[in-house]
Write a structure and sequence with these properties.
Helix content is 39%, strand content 0%. It is mostly helical. The longest helix has 14 residues.
């Protein structure tokens, strides 16, 4: 996410043009304050398994739980 001072800069968001639909959706979701609150609540209560309650509420799918994506 670009620094706050650059939020109006077209160049700061140029990377959005190359995103796949799921990646673009993630860009919006991760900025949603309600999702962020729910995520922190779920992870705080359940640790690694915290994402499970988020699936029905936010329509999420987590295809690679193995961590092989290098993140």
């Amino acid at each position: 996410m670009p620094p706050m001072r650059e939020w109006r800069s077209e160049a700061a968001y140029a990377y959005l043009n190359d995103l796949k639909p799921a990646e673009l959706a993630w860009e919006f979701l991760r900025r949603n304050p309600n999702y962020r609150r729910d995520y922190h609540t779920a992870v705080g209560e359940a640790g690694e398994e915290g994402s499970e309650p988020l699936i029905p509420q936010w329509g999420l799918r987590f295809p690679d739980q193995s961590g092989s994506s290098g993140e």
